[in-house]
Amino acid sequence: MNVTTQHYIQDPPITDLSPRLATVSVLAVAVHHFIFRKGEWHLQAPHIFAIWALSAPILFVAETLLSSSQSWRVLARNAVLTTSCFTIATLSSIAVYRLFFHRLSDFPGPALARVSKLWHTVQCQDSRNHLVLDKLHQQYGDFVRTGPNEITIFDPEGLQRLDGPGNKNTKSVFYDFLLPNVGVETIRDKAWHDERRRIWTKAFSTKTLPLYQQKMTDHAHNLVKIIGKYADEGKVVPFSSFAYWFSFDVMGLFALNKSFGMMHNGQWHEMITRLRGAIALLGPCSSVPWLGQIAFKFFKFHPTVQDWNIWSKWCQAQIEEQIQKNDESTCISSYLIAESIEKGTVEQDKPLLTGEAITAIIAGSDTVALTTIFLFYELASHPEHLERLRQELSGIDVDDCRELEKLPHLNGVINETMRLHPALPTAGYRDSPEEGVTIAGRYIPGNTTLVAPRYTIFRSERCYEKPNDFVPERWYCQPELIKDNRSFLPFAQGRYTCIGKALALSELRTITTLLVSNFDFSFKEGDDGSSVVRDARDHFTTCPGPLELVFLRRE
After folding, report:
1. pTM of whole model > 0.70?
2. Which residues contact 351 (CB under 8 A, 6 or more apart)?
3. pLDDT in tens, the chain (555 residues)
4. Do the record's keywords include GTP-binding (predicted)?
5. What is the phi/psi pair of residue 238, to 5°?
6. What gap in Å lies between CA 412 and CA 508, rounded to an integer?
7. Among 411, 374, 405, 371, CA closest to 389
């Protein structure tokens, strides 16, 4: 019997690739040190991700075309090993540098946070960044390295130094999240920001504010009627929903001269539902802007990304409609569009006008709604302050916004609510100037991302007596309960101060006085309202847990 011997050609050993892998490793380290360490790369993240994902297939095709003597298995193995080696060498170089040689290595913080902000994303996957940072403060102190190039400052001086007079800080890469749209709140270039800010002041002049306030007051009276119907029928009021409906309806009028009609229809508008779904992405991803760029480029099928894109296109359509009308309505967009028409730059300004509509609606609606929810939670939890408010309102015309400005306990209740439950609990990322900055005696190198979390600073024992207690009197008759005046900046300050501050406070005063004057209210049976705080999320702005209240008409 003949035995046929079959010879197999063995693949060359991996050791044959050693020179190539060594060269690739050196190249990877060089790319990190001489390219990636310089400048900003978050906007290039989609391109880098695509190149990385396609590198092995491209290398395989190239080697196939250039080599006819090796099997496809060998070429595929070589391509995978080469790209893997480059990736591992790059990441290793990054990790070693950030852990041991980075200019921020003297600052304390979690080891993984020093290596990558992805650590922070994992920690914030349930969108409780305010609690994550508060815990880091307790563990590491006032200056914590919360990212490879990021310092979180818990000293109250931090808030002043980031935005106060004379500061040279700039907005960080986070504010590019709207691109290709952009708005006054997200513009990073100071000169351009100041130019747009001057245009915005026309929309918030002493002439326009009374008109906005009248529209807002009319909507507030409608809210009273709607809650009155619930009271007459003995229904529990879904107060969280009502607060958002009121705020977004009003801001729709202010920004686009078009109410969302949620109070009238008694249900959420589709676009606002999509917006709120999209904003949830900011909870875990706000600390890693490059991850958001990749998501919006390659994961457009994701429901959250779809929500944001549909919302953005809707806002763009509203701006197009406003441009076509070209009327003289007193809404924010009309002033901005008129400026572009006067300059002859309407077409090129459309991404800017769209971005400013988006930011106006979000900034003007979310902040008022969430503060209203927390305020009524605190009043329901502390009925003694409800009675003091009613005594203060005796004989006051609740529709007179100027009279309401003078009421100390009302303003104290609002301030105390904003202190305990800040609208922007951890937001406000800034980049230090080239020469660096010294805060509370600690020098921080230039081009470092800085943030001073309001949630922790507003509750600091160094700044307030009874920091976790609801004490409105600290703002007018018990000033000794405030130890450090620098610590309370709910609307920011300087060039980045909230341009709608006066209007927001007017809304809060009006809705509070109208509801307090017309109704008694309490938590529903068996509920203490604690879910409002317990289930709160940090989605850039705070998202309170649900609040349900029982309202009764006052005799």
Report:
1. yes
2. 180, 181, 182
3. 444 444 445 555 655 788 889 999 999 999 999 999 999 999 999 999 999 999 988 888 887 877 766 777 888 888 899 999 999 999 999 999 999 999 999 999 999 999 999 999 999 999 999 999 999 999 999 999 999 999 999 999 999 999 888 889 999 999 998 888 888 889 999 999 999 999 999 888 888 889 899 999 999 999 999 999 999 999 999 999 999 999 999 999 999 999 999 999 999 999 999 999 898 888 888 778 898 889 889 998 999 999 999 999 999 999 999 998 877 777 899 999 999 999 999 999 999 999 999 999 998 999 999 999 999 999 999 999 999 999 999 989 999 999 999 999 999 999 999 999 999 999 999 999 999 999 999 999 999 999 999 999 999 999 999 999 999 999 999 999 999 988 899 998 888 888 999 999 999 999 999 999 999 999 999 999 999 999 999 999 999 999 999 999 997
4. no
5. -75, 80
6. 12
7. 411
Residue spans of alpha helices (H) in 116-204: 118-123, 129-140, 157-163, 190-203
Distances 215 to 15, 24, 331, 493 between C-alpha atoms, Å = 77, 65, 11, 27
d(CA 381, CA 242): 19
CA distance 186 to 489: 19
Q: How far apart are CA 407 and CA 409, in angstroms?
A: 6
Find where tokens 């508060």 sit.
134
Report d(CA 311, CA 373) in Å as an integer.
Answer: 24
* CA-wise closest residue to 427 among 543, 527, 262: 543
DSSP state of 183: -
Rounded distance between C-alpha atoms, residue 45 and residue 153, angstroms? 28
In the chain, the domains with their CATH numbers are 14-101 (no CATH), 162-553 (1.10.630.10)
Quote the CA–CA distance of 211 and 214 in Å, as a whole number.
5
Residue recorded with tokens 């040190």? 33
Rounded to whole angstroms, how far apart are CA atoms 146 and 110? 7
